[in-house]
Structures are given as structure tokens and as C-alpha cells.
């Protein structure tokens, strides 16, 4: 088809095509040509050809010309008009096609939106700032158990009725502030009530459309049920900051509370207590962990009853407790500590067993002693260990002098680490005599320490230090090898070997690797049965009975005699006398020193000796300092004795004279 642009410019009128305008256009053009033809052609012919007959002929020709020209004209006009119609038709078809595509996209988008809304657990909401109308999809409320009718909301107040009363005021305050001072995004969390009365956590998010005047036009967003993630979050918080058994704050939770307290009230002093239950491990070992756990829970509950907010109590792990006391007043702090001890001292019935506990408390104060949680806890810890050194149910306030003593202990520990390598340790031996004839029977090996360039450090200072710092293993291994070498050296002096007893710590008796190394030394130096003995204490057995029993049996099977030291001091369980591979029993010096102080003491000592003999155990009495003590023990047929009255500990070269 011919393009309308090929038609003469004469026919190019306005391009906007309508039936009315097309008809007018064709009529006017045809009328214009007709008028011009009639008015001009007759005069033109008459002027050009005056002959009448010839004029009539030309009139006929003119008529046919008119018909031909008007036909051509009509053809051009119709073609031009049809071209315009065709062009408009194409434009209409293209526009219609675009409209259909857009409609399809819109329909698909609406379907996706509807499907997303239906498939989502969230509810979509919209708030109109001009009409205050509130729309919310019903998904969330249906999931919360409400009916379709109950889930139908039209104004914001309809949503408010589902919000937990405790959170409603805060929700309204935030909403009103957002409307009055709008920002682009709204975010808040709060609780709502489910249809069954349970609680759900909701996170509301919205995006605002704000006009030029800073007013809200619309806000759209979503309500999301975050109960599950909130529960996970709370569970993680509980695991991170609360003790799993007692439910009290743990170390991290306590640290967080103290740090927040210091940050929010830096100029207000407070007191921090660090409580540690005495010998709680013994409860676990004697009565079982189930009993120990129940005991710990009861103690924790009692401690929780003693604090009133903003005071805080925490279970710092195992049998340790921390307290934040909101005062540094001496009277009030002592009153609080007295209430703690009163609660601890009461007897508790656990599985039909009546148990009680004692505890030591270390006290540090902010900001006098320290200004950070870690430093305060370290100070309280130092004070607590000082309290333990003074006895049970004792509390100590931190002081600079105490800290200096602690620093001295640290410095002493560093020196002790080098004692073996620097050859600063040496052995002394205290003879043990058979009381029936006062002949030398055996010896006890005693380690001593003389640091380079300074005075001796007493064994009751450095031995506990070595045990608490883990240095005891290295020292004890050195002691075993030194004593073994000395026993071999004495073989040439006396035809019959003199047994030497070595003190074995709780760390050593429960350490399988250490016992293996001792056995290797015995075999390396070919020690005979009975030449080496070991002394163990009841405390060492209590800490890990099964491991101790296993290792003692190994030692005994390798020819080492076992002595139970300090019997009568501590728990003195008769179970040990029949279940452990013990050869000799040593009566604690605390009984020996009190001989004849009372009939009861004498009776107890006599009972111990008689009991030991009845189960085929020999008895050594230690700490004999007077002749009347020696006479009484001999009268009871005590097998052996040692003490200053018989012989003081001495260097090897002095003891050798006794052997000769």
C-alpha cells in the first residue's frame, strides 16, 4: 500500500483521524475543486476559442475532463484517508498490544504479590497518613489462632488490642513519635497475645512516604513473628550468661552486670564478695555427684533469697559464688556476710542424708581496691585464698599488704620453678624407731629448699605452693631419684637395707604418668622390695579415690610399702583401712602431742592402735617430743615412733653414723 507521505502536501491536513473529520475533509476538497472548475473553465475556453461550434465541442471534452479529474481527485483523497486509517489502526494495535503486555505483567505481579502474601508467615500492613486508615493482611493473626472476623482490622487501634498490655504503652509512644517526627524507616519489637493466651514476639518494620511538608503520606511494612528466633536468642543468652545447673548468673553474666554497674554509676562504691565452699569436692566423692548437684542447687536458692535488687548473686562455676553488695559500709557488709554464713550453716537433707557446709569469703571494694571487674575479682580471689589459709568459715578483706604477700608468693613460685635445675633442693632424713627396743627401723625422707642467696624456705610454705602451681610433679620425681640413689649408697654401709618413706602428694598418687615414671626409676636402679615406701594422706585419697587406689596397687605390686599418713586428721574414713593396700598407719602428731591431756584423747589413741592391729596393720606414731608420750605409746604396743624426742631430721652424712 502506498505510504501517505507520497500524496501531495495539499492533502496533508491534521494527522489525527476521526470519521467526522475525514468526511468533512473529502467534501471540502471536492467542493473546492468543483467551484474552481465551474468558475474558471468556461471563461478560459471562451477566451481561448471564440468559435461557438468548436466551443461546444470543447464543453464536451471539458465535461469528460472534469469527470476524470474528479475521479482521480476522489481516488487520491480516499487513498490518503485510508492510509491515515491504516496508520491509526496500526498505532491502535501496537498500543493495544502494549496495553495487553502491561496488563499481563500487572496481573502476574499482582498474582505473585498475592501468592507471596498468602505463602508468607508475615502480615503486610499499610497506614494512610491522611485518612488514618489501617490495612493489614490476616496471615499473622490467623497463625496466632484468631478467626477471619477477629483478624479484620481497619484502624491502628484494632491492632493495639492484640499487643500485650505491658508493651502497649511503649508501642504507642514509638508510633506517635514516628508520626510526629517521621523518618524513612520504622523498626520495633514487642509482644502480642495469641488466641490461646500464650505470648508471641513480633518485629514490625515499615517504610514511610513523606511529603514536602515532612508529613507522612503512607507507611507500608510487615509484621513478623520472631518468637522462635527470640527463644533461640534467649536460650543462647541463658547458656552464655547463666549457670546451667543453678540458674544463677555465671561468671560471664556476673562480669557483665559488674561492668554495667561501673559504667552507669562510676562514682558510687560497692562491695564484691567471692565465696568458695570448703571441701565441696568431698561431698561429691563421698555421696556422689547427684547429691552434690542437689546440694549446690539448694545453696544457690538460699543465696538468691539473701539478695535484694539491685544486689546480685552469681554461681561463678562449681562451688564458687559472687555477690554484688550495694554498699561499702562496714556494718552493713558484715551483716550481709553474717546472713550468708547463717544460711550456709543450716543442715540440709539430701536423699535422706543430713549435710552441712562451710565457706570462705574474699572481699574487694570498688573503687578503693580496684576499678575493673577482672581486677576486683582477682583481689577478692586473693582475699578468699587468704581466708582459706586461716580456716573454715572465714572471710578476709583485700588489702595492699595481702596483695604484697600474694606478689611475694608469685615471686617465690618463679624461684621454685628453677629450684631443681639450680640444684637448690636437698634431702634430710628423720629416723623411725621400733618402740619395743628403740632400734632404728626406717627413715622418712624430707625435702628442703635453700634458694641461692637467701634463707631457707620452710616446707610448709613451698610444698603447698608447689602443689597449687603444678610444680610438685617435677620436685617429687627429683625426690624419688635422689632418695633411690641414697638407698643404693647406704647398701654398702649396712648389710640390711633401711626402708625410706617418701611423701607422695595427691597430685602424684592420682597421676598415672607420674606413677609410670616412678616404676621406671625403681627398675632402672634395681630397687629391692621394701627399700622404698610411700606416705599418702587421706586428702590425697579423697580427691580422686579410684585413680589413687589403682596407682597404689601398682606401686605395691612393685615392692613399695604404703603408709597412710596423718590418720585422725580430717575425715579418717575406716573404709580406707580395709579397702586400700595399706601396710602401716601413722597416727597424726595432733593426737600424739595431746597424750594425757584427757582420758578421751588417750582412749582414742588406744582405739586407733588396737583397731590397726586387729586388721593386721602396723602403727607409727609421729610427733613424739616427750618421754611420757613415748612410754604411753610403747605401753599400747605401738610398733614404731618418730619425733624430735627420738631424732631430729638430719643430713645423710649424719644419719650414716646411725647406720654404722
Structural notes for this entry:
With 660 residues, the protein is α/β, with parallel strands linked by helices. The chain has four domains: 4-114, no CATH class; 123-231, PAS domain (Beta-Lactamase, 2-Layer Sandwich), CATH 3.30.450; 242-398, Alpha-Beta Plaits (2-Layer Sandwich); 412-659, EAL domain (TIM Barrel, Alpha-Beta Barrel), CATH 3.20.20.450. The protein contains 23 helices and 20 strands. α8 (280-287) packs across α9 (289-305), α12 crosses α13 and α14 packs parallel to α16. The chain is elongated. Residues 1-14 have low confidence and may be disordered.
Q: Strand order across the biggest sheet?
A: 13-14-15-16-17-18-19-20
Q: Strand portion, in percent?
A: 15-25%
What is the CATH C-level name of the largest domain? Alpha Beta
The stretches of 5 or more residues where confidence is low (pLDDT under 50) are 1-14
Work out the count of structural domains. 4
CATH-defined architecture of the largest domain: Alpha-Beta Barrel
What is the element layout, followed by pairings?
Elements: H1 19-48, H2 52-119, E1 123-128, E2 134-136, H3 139-143, H4 156-160, H5 165-180, E3 185-193, E4 199-210, E5 216-225, H6 227-241, H7 251-264, E6 270-277, H8 280-287, H9 289-305, E7 312-317, E8 320-325, H10 330-345, E9 348-350, E10 353-355, E11 359-366, H11 373-390, E12 395-397, H12 400-417, E13 425-434, E14 439-449, H13 459-469, H14 472-491, E15 500-503, H15 506-509, H16 512-524, E16 532-537, H17 538-543, H18 545-557, E17 561-567, H19 574-579, E18 584-587, H20 589-592, H21 599-614, E19 618-621, H22 627-635, E20 640-641, H23 652-659
Parallel strand pairs: 11-12, 14-15, 15-16, 16-17, 17-18, 18-19, 19-20
Antiparallel strand pairs: 1-2, 1-5, 3-4, 4-5, 6-8, 6-11, 7-8, 9-10, 13-14, 13-20
Helix pairs in contact: 1-2, 8-9, 12-13, 14-16
